[in-house]
Amino acid sequence: MTRVLSPVPGRVVGLAGVPDPVFAQAMVGPGTAVDPARGPGAAAAPVAGTIVKLHPHAYVVVDAEGHGVLVHLGIDTVQLKGAGFELLAAEGDRVEAGQPVVAWDPAAIEAGGRSPVCAVVALDAGADALSGVREDGDVERGAELFAWS
Amino acid sequence: MDKAEAIVAALGGADNIIEIEPCATRLRTEVRDGGAVDDAALKAAGAYGVMRSGTVVQVVVGPEADTLASDIEDILD
Q1: A27, A68, A78 ranked by CB distance to B24: nearest
Q2: What SS3 state is found at A44?
């Protein structure tokens, strides 16, 4: 059982609340999404494990059970080519759940005309592999978003 | 045929691909002829989904998009 934690503080909106069909239709896996609190902050590892992919705007952490969790910071943020994101860890690093991975400012993303919504996706999980999925309400960074069996 | 080769073929072949760029979850490609792109073949090659807007085709492949894109660049060069 993997407890997947919110990488950012904010308001949970569910995957259906992500303005991008890949996430909203759960094409790469089920999960949820958080509309982050505006202002400078750091997005954290959702689980303890190894960072297997690290882009400025997205990262994947795989835990000891082999569960890969994707955190995607904002929509169409690949177009920023890293501007506004500062890496606080490196690909291949082992991280603890809640450890900061990328520093960013959701307000700056929004000011640039993009949604800063953070999708948190259980890669390749079946829809019924997740339980207790948060779909709404406010969360602190590190609050549980769902459990993955 | 490996996955990169299968995706190139499903996009209508190397000559049909103008540009291919990875994002965290997908390959963003621009093709000459959108009609030469075979969605079913892309899914058979392992794509989770395909989104099109004219000659811009997004192939959803998950986080291996960056490694697949570099394999595809090798084929195109």
Answers
A1: A78
A2: strand
How distant is the Cα of A39 from the closest Cα of chain B, in angstroms?
24
> Does the pLDDT of residue A127 top 80, yes or no?
no
The amino acid occupying position A26 is A
| CATH at A29 | 2.70.70.10
Q: What percent of chain B has pLDDT over 90?
A: 92
What pLDDT is attached to residue A7?
Answer: 98
Q: How many domains does chain B have?
A: 1
Domain that holds residue A15: 2-148
For residue A67, which residues of chain B lie inside 8 Å, CB to CB?
none
Using 50, 70 and 90 to split pLDDT, how confident is the model at A54? very high
Return the CA Rg of chain B: 11
Residues 6+ apart with CB under 8 A from B70: none
For the domain that residue B37 is a member of, what is the CATH number?
3.30.1360.60
- Mean pLDDT value of segment B38-47: 96
Per the structure, the complete domain to which residue B34 belongs is given by 3-76
Q: How many beta-carbon contacts under 8 Å exist across A and B?
A: 44
Distance in angstroms (rounded) separating the CA atoms of residues B75 and B5: 7
Q: Sign (positive/negative) of CA torsion A80, A86, A91, A96? A: negative
